[in-house]
Write a structure and sequence with these properties.
Elements (H helix, E strand, L loop, with lengths): L3 E7 L4 H6 L2 E8 L2 E9 H11 L4 E6 L2 E12 L6 E8 L5 E11 L1 H6 L2 E5 L3 E7 L7 E4 L8 E3 L9 E3 L6 E7 L4 H15 L9
Parallel strand pairs: 1-4, 2-6, 7-10
Antiparallel strand pairs: 1-3, 2-3, 4-5, 5-6, 7-9, 8-13, 9-12, 11-13
Organism: Lutispora saccharofermentans
Function: This is one of the proteins that binds to the 5S RNA in the ribosome where it forms part of the central protuberance.
Subunit structure: Part of the 50S ribosomal subunit; part of the 5S rRNA/L5/L18/L25 subcomplex. Contacts the 5S rRNA. Binds to the 5S rRNA independently of L5 and L18.
């Protein structure tokens, strides 16, 4: 999978001024680079996160120099949900690192159709391995899950080159039956019965 690229600019302004100019303030740091205050074009940062995730691998371009790294942390406005800050950690691609990777549960539409609920206990897991082998996200297919099923770390197929420090029996999610409101059931029953009763004829015999 192609690594996304993000242009980074040095920043001397305060965060609020940067945001007014449609940039996102942030920090870039790592063993091989000096920590620096930076900014990113908001449209570029939003696109990157939408397409690759909030912990994605990326190539950052600062002063025409390219470096490999990860989105380490993001902050969003609690009211608008807008991205207001982002930190990037620069690493060597062959370095052994630990990195939090988001879990993406696929097939939830099938659960809803079967009146099942997915109770998520973990939104991300900590993976360890060479930086270049750590995925942007881990997808978990729950489309065939049944009520009472527990999704464990052991059920997930991890890339061969990475490991997870979490216990394998940690429940990541649990599937339960949706509780149908009794009033809704009564309404559905009444509507069903009314459909079976023929309408009364009007007028004189």
């Amino acid at each position: 999978m192609r690594t996304a690229k993000l242009e980074v600019f040095e920043r001397n302004e305060k965060g609020h001024k940067v945001r007014r100019e449609q940039f996102v303030p942030g920090v870039i740091y790592g063993k091989e680079v000096e920590a620096a205050s930076v900014k990113f074009r908001k449209k570029d940062a939003d696109k990157l996160i939408k397409e690759s995730g909030s912990r994605a691998k990326l190539t950052v371009v600062l002063n025409e120099k390219e470096s490999f790294g990860f989105i380490k942390d993001t902050t969003r406005d609690v009211l608008t949900g807008d991205l207001i800050h982002m930190d990037i950690q620069v690493v060597n691609q062959d370095s052994e690192i630990s990195h939090s990777v988001p879990l993406v549960f696929k097939g939830t539409d099938a659960l809803i159709y079967n009146r099942l609920i997915l109770q998520i206990n973990a939104n991300e897991i900590q993976l360890t391995g060479k930086a270049k082998f750590i995925p942007d996200v881990i997808e978990v297919d729950v489309s065939n899950a049944k009520s009472g099923d527990t999704i464990l770390l052991a059920d997930i197929d991890l890339p061969d080159a990475v490991t997870c420090a979490n216990m394998e029996d940690v429940p990541l999610a649990v599937v339960t039956s949706a509780k149908i409101d009794e009033a809704d059931e009564m309404t559905d029953t009444a509507e069903s019965n009314s459909e079976d009763v023929p309408a009364e004829e009007t007028g004189n015999a």
